[in-house]
Amino acid sequence: MQVFIVEDHDLMRHMLGQWVQRTSGLNLCGEAQNAEEALQQIPERHPDLALVDVSLPQINGIELIGMLQEQYPDLLILAISGHDENVYAVPALRAGAQGYLMKGDVDKLGEAIKQIRSGGIYASEAVRALLEKPD
């Protein structure tokens, strides 16, 4: 599975990249610091999965997720954020992400990827409850 990372923090991007490279069955095919770089590189890199930080400069991660889903409907997207999931998870999932993972729970990255790879949605129980609430 080809993985592309969109993360504006160098240390976090590096850490995620190292994790992907050490994980059997995953290959890091590219990295971007912002949405503009991602939109330029993704067509050339052909990822199967994009890990997208919700908080990006200029075009935020939720907007990017919507753009990616429109242009690449088969691309799996896992939103990753250090921000409150009660605020950002539902918009990210409704924009087209198949999962939402808090950066503090990055140890669950493998579980999240496995879940969305098998066609499921990865989110905490609290987020699942929010998704079930009518607007």
Q: How would you explain this protein's 3D organization?
A:
The structure is a single chain. The protein is α/β, with parallel strands linked by helices and 135 residues long. It has a single domain (2-132), classed as Rossmann fold, CATH 3.40.50.2300. 47% of the residues lie in helices and 19% in strands. The chain has six helices and five strands, in the order E-H-E-H-E-H-E-H-E-H-H. Strands 2-1-3-4-5 form a five-stranded parallel β-sheet, sandwiched between helices. Helix 3 packs parallel to helix 4 and helix 4 crosses helix 6. The chain is globular. The N and C termini lie far apart (35 Å).
Total beta-strand segments = 5
Mean pLDDT score, rounded?
A: 93
How much of the residues is beta strand, in percent? 15-25%
Number of domains: 1
Please render the helix and strand layout as text.
Layout: E1 2-6, H1 10-22, E2 27-32, H2 35-45, E3 49-53, H3 61-71, E4 76-81, H4 85-95, E5 99-102, H5 109-117, H6 125-132
Helix pairs in contact: 3-4, 4-6
Overview in brief:
With 135 residues, this protein is of the alpha/beta class. It is built from 6 helices and 5 strands, in the order βαβαβαβαβαα. The protein is 47% helix and 19% strand.
